[in-house]
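Note to self: keep these together.
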Amino acid sequence: MGLRTSVIVNGINNLSDARYCAGMGVDIISFNLKLDAADRMPSETLKEIVGWVSGVKLAGEFERAKPDIINQYADEFGLHYIQLDTPYLIDEIEEINRPVIQKVFINKDTVESELLEMMELYGPSVDSFLLYSTDFNSIDDTNTKFLHNLARKFPIFVGFGVHRENINTILKEVKPAGIGLRGGHEIKPGLKDFDELQEIFEEIEEN
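Structure:
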């Protein structure tokens, strides 16, 4: 199966999600590897998932780990990308030996000019930006224009406010490099409700 846009799914924490996303044509699945996070992916689980999935790129989500630690994880588990969920120094990013996805948080107080300045600074050192927000649950006319302006200048993944009802409008009017979604917990081992992801995948499946 193919999808009409690139998709990254964050927070993969079980084999069911990983295999489902790989089978649906997701480009990148990412795992929470933040050193002090309570829901951090155990190494044993990550090894199991890496051993079972194919045809999809793997990313690790980090927050404060030093570049040498990040590189160790990337080499040990065969990660293709590194996602930084907090801003690092440019010098630190350039020490990371995988392409970097920089997560950028947007809220109601975000100033577009300041965000553009930050992205212009980081742009040459990262592969793409994943835009995320806890303030906005949907994308309205104002957000669409704002995101379109960013997408014209940078490779961005829209990681908030994406629903079955608006995904086609987002792809048409924002024209992002892709979208960002989230995995979830299994109901019990091997049993998973994929309804929310499936609804979006159905909308962007290539005919």
